[in-house]
Specification:
5 strands, alpha+beta, 35% strand, globular
């Protein structure tokens, strides 16, 4: 890949001095709209984690999306999600846990 084929990545420094990269993305309108999910199943092997996002309704369940990631990326995802959950609850209040 030549330099002119490289994705446009800008580096920013966050308040805690961590380097954060911004990646210019392209996508479709369908993906931009997103897909609602109210249930998730996680499976793993030594090489990857598989996240199945499901919509459960009165008529049954539909697998809406399957995302497969490396173990190290899965661990980073959990860290980022935990941080965002903490920030959300600090701003809007604690989310009550609900059993399905």
């Amino acid at each position: 890949m030549t330099d002119d084929q490289q994705p446009n990545i800008d580096k920013n420094v966050t308040m805690d001095n961590q380097v954060q990269k911004e990646l210019e993305l392209t996508t479709t309108e369908e993906i931009k709209r997103g897909i609602f999910s109210n249930y998730m199943i996680v499976n793993h092997s030594p090489e990857d984690f598989t996240l199945d996002f499901i919509l459960i309704s009165r008529t049954g369940g539909t697998l809406n999306s399957r995302v497969i990631v490396t173990p190290s990326h899965f661990k980073r995802m959990i860290t980022v999600m935990a941080d965002n959950l903490k920030k959300y609850e600090e701003k809007y209040g604690e989310i009550p846990e609900r059993q399905i």
